[in-house]
Structures are given as C-alpha cells and as structure tokens.
Design a protein that fits this description.
By secondary structure, this protein is mostly helical. The protein is built from 14 helices and two strands; from the N terminus they run ααααββαααααααααα. A two-stranded antiparallel sheet has the order 1-2.
C-alpha cells in the first residue's frame, strides 16, 4: 500500500499544479483580453469617425454644388466651378507613370536580393532600401525640385514641373514598399520548388522567371497595389514638383495638379463651398484607398 501511495503521489502533484491558477492571473488575462479588444475596436471606430466627419463636411457637394459640377473639368472656386475631373486625371497620370517606373525597379531589386545577391551584398543593399522608406516626403520633394526638375526642363524645353518629374520622384518613393513585400512573397516560396526546377535541368534565370515569379505572383500583385496606394496618397513631394495647374495636361512635361496637392494648396485659405469641395476630394480619395485595401484583401484571401 505504501508503494502504491508513493507511485500515485508524483503523478498527482503535477495535475494539482496545472489545475491551480491564481485569481490574480485570471484577472490579468481577462484584463489583457479586454485591452487588446479595445485597441482593435478603436481602430475600427477611428476609421468610421474619419469617414463620417469627411462625408459630413462634404455634404454641400451633394446639396449646393451638385455632382454634375463636382465631376466636371473646370476647377475655379472663385468662379463657382468645382470640377475635379482634371485633378483626378492628374492623380491617375502621376500614379500610372510612377508604377511603370517603380514596379520593375522594386521587383527587380527584390529578385536580386532574394535569389542572386550574396549575404555580404544583401547586408549592404537591404538597409539602403529600408532607409528609402524612412526619408521624409519633403526631402524627396527637394530632390525632385533641385536635381530632377532641371533635367526634365532640359529635355522637354519647359520649366520641368509636371507629371514626368513626379514620376521619377514617386517611383523612388514606392520602391521600398514594393521591394519589401515582394521579398516576403519570394521568401515564402519553398526551396523545394527551386530544387525541383534545378533537378530538371533549368538554369537559375529560367527558375526565377518561369517558376519562382509565377509562384509568387499574387504576393507581387499585392505589393504593387500597396505601392499604388502610396503613390495616390502622396502629397508634399508631388505638390513641390507638378506645377499645380488644375487642367488636363497637354503633355507629360506640362504642369498639372492632383487631388492631394490641390487639397494641401487650398485648405489653408478655403471657406464655404470651396472648403466643402476639398472635403469632397477627401471622400473620393478615401473611397479609392478603401477600394485598394479591398483588392489587397481579396488577393490575400485567394493566396491563402
């Protein structure tokens, strides 16, 4: 009997220890659960409040300005014209051009760092790419004005302000976003896929563009969409290099204006319907951003 009791005691002790959870620990865990829920709920409430405030401030667009006037070509608040189509066109032109330049650069940098570069080279280039993301927008604006604008002016026989200058600036600005997310997509591809390609006689380059890139295409598209969101929402750097002329441009080197740059330019002195129209632009940008986030979520869901 004594031996049986000694055999039961060691096994019973751990069970009693596992079963005992102090009341203080239980309270802490419950408090942390509510704290994390409050943080997540605060994010949702913040988004809703921002959208509600912006929409409420833009309500005169529907009642006084009218959608026909709001979505017309002419932006001249002093004359009662609040058309944003030229500004939308400017934002679209700047964004598309930045993607055409920035996507190959960002994806190419990611492919080189993940698939080709040595560890020594990777330790040098990766921090440099990360540093690009931390440079303030106004520094990019200065760089565009002082370095890129004179070059564009020389090749276009103009002042150098316009979409072409903004393309160079934004292309550099979106490279860190595209590069980082593309690297994550490439690193998520199992090494066995590459080894199988090599085993079938494929070279490194054939493996990259016929196996690895197609396998990571959804992640790359995700990176491009987020880079597009960065380009659309950029304000200060664009404001400094586009020329801020709210008209349909005659060429890529002609001065233009975008939604974000026009808001930044006019908000300080606007009032009345003019101010409401600027908030209306904010609603349009909010909807565009929400659409991009929705696209990213759908792509991520499909990838999973």
């Amino acid at each position: 009997m004594e031996d049986q009791t000694m055999e039961e005691t060691p096994s019973a002790a751990p069970k009693r220890e596992l079963a005992l959870v102090s009341h203080a620990t239980y309270v802490k865990e419950k408090a942390l659960r509510y704290l994390f829920f409050a943080c997540a709920f605060l994010a949702v409430v913040t988004v809703i409040l921002i959208f509600a405030f912006t929409t409420y401030s833009a309500f005169p667009v529907f009642t006084d300005i009218g959608l026909a006037n709001f979505f017309s070509l002419t932006w001249a608040p002093s004359e009662g014209e609040y058309g944003i189509v030229s500004l939308l066109a400017g934002s679209g032109l700047v964004t598309v051009g930045a993607l055409v330049m920035g996507v190959p650069l960002g994806v190419g940098t990611a492919v080189y760092l993940v698939e080709i570069a040595s560890d020594r080279v990777r330790k040098i280039i990766s921090p440099a790419v990360d540093l690009l993301a931390g440079i303030p927008s106004i520094i990019y604006g200065f760089f565009g004005m002082v370095i890129i604008r004179p070059f564009v002016a020389q090749i276009s026989d103009g002042l150098g302000f316009g979409a072409l200058t903004a393309w160079f600036v934004l292309a550099i600005m979106i490279v860190p976003t595209i590069t980082t997310l593309t690297m994550d997509a490439l690193n998520s591809i199992p090494m066995g896929i590459r080894e199988a390609s090599y085993a079938m006689g494929a070279t490194k380059w054939q493996t990259i563009y016929k196996v690895v890139l197609p396998a990571a295409k959804l992640g790359i598209v995700d990176a491009i969409v987020l880079g597009m969101g960065r380009a659309i929402g950029e304000t200060m750097a664009v404001l400094m290099v586009v020329g801020n002329a709210p008209v349909i441009p005659s060429s890529i080197a002609s001065p233009i204006s975008t939604l974000t740059s026009q808001i930044a330019l006019d908000m300080s002195y606007s009032s009345g319907l003019h101010r409401s129209a600027l908030f209306g632009m904010g609603v349009v940008l909010f909807i565009i951003s929400a659409a991009l986030v929705g696209i990213v979520r759908l792509i991520s869901k499909k990838r999973r």
